[in-house]
Amino acid sequence: MKKTTLLAAISLLSVAAASGSAHAQSGGNVALVLGVKGSPFYQALQCGAQAKAKELGLTLTVSAPDQFAADSQIPVVNAVTATKPDVAAIVPTDTQALVAPMKQLADMGAKVITVDQTINDTSFVQTQVLTNNEAGGKMAAVDMNDLLGGKGKVLVITQPPGSAAQDARVTGFEEQIKTYSGIEYLGPQYQSDDPQKAAEIVTSTLSAHPDLAGIFSTNDQGAIGAITGLRQAGAAGKIKVIAYDAATAEVNAFKNGQIHALIAQDPKQEGEVAMEIAAKLIKGEKIDKVTMTDIVSIKAGDTAAAEKYEYKADCM
After folding, report:
1. Could you tell me the pTM of the whole model?
2. Where are the beta strands (DSSP E) in 249-294?
3. Residue 97 clears pLDDT 90, i.e. is over it
4. Which residue, among 114, 219, 210, 111, has the nearest Cα to 160 in the 3D structure?
5. Which of 67, 114, 138, 280 could form a disulfide with 285 if both were Cys (CB 3.0 to 4.6 A apart)?
6. Strand blocks (E) in 10-168
């Protein structure tokens, strides 16, 4: 009996040692939860994260909801919680609805960071990896005023309220555009990551306002839909379009003159920074509460910049 017990103990220690060795070799387990499947932005972010995780020796798992919505993402976060990662990097799709599931994840021992978006309660969040979305919205308004020569009706196509990044882009745009007395701001309309809905918004707005002069879309899906709507109305290239993001479809439309300016982020950089922070957290190092990443305004004709910032999922 003693011999059997001793052998069993040795066996358990061997398994534990092997597990510990594998864990040490991996550098830690990190879970990345994206905003939605199939998004060029989030695919590029994933590629940046995967490359950096490999470089740093992290074991990375990636998941995403089918829709950019809290009810679709919460089960994904709950599934991640069950795996007990060392660090969870999450793109929260709603500022309030994701607080409880993310806090539960933190309470289970994971170091939680937000990427690209944020939430209302960050008391348990180690850091927020962000771009200055409000500044990006202001950039778009400055570009719009310049493109229109200070006169004309302008529409915003965006997400329903609740996405921190989208809301900030609209806020920045509205604050800046209202400083131009010759611009008539028609307000925001919502497309819920649905290009077809964005196309319908454009055609219906043109029916009510045939003198529409400019459109600002706060993400790539809205921009792609807006271009479709303008084509259907025979107005592509005539109405000035400024689009957030630099997905391939947007860059192509920019090159052929259907989009007149891009407000581009650097999703690969966001993914890389998130993994660098994860590695530091696993080592017990201190980090800043907020980590900012790049944002640029790309003007018409600057194809080199558009190609540089194009969102490429080159790991897929």
Report:
1. 0.84
2. 261-265, 290-292
3. yes
4. 219
5. 280
6. 29-33, 59-63, 87-90, 111-115, 125-130, 152-158
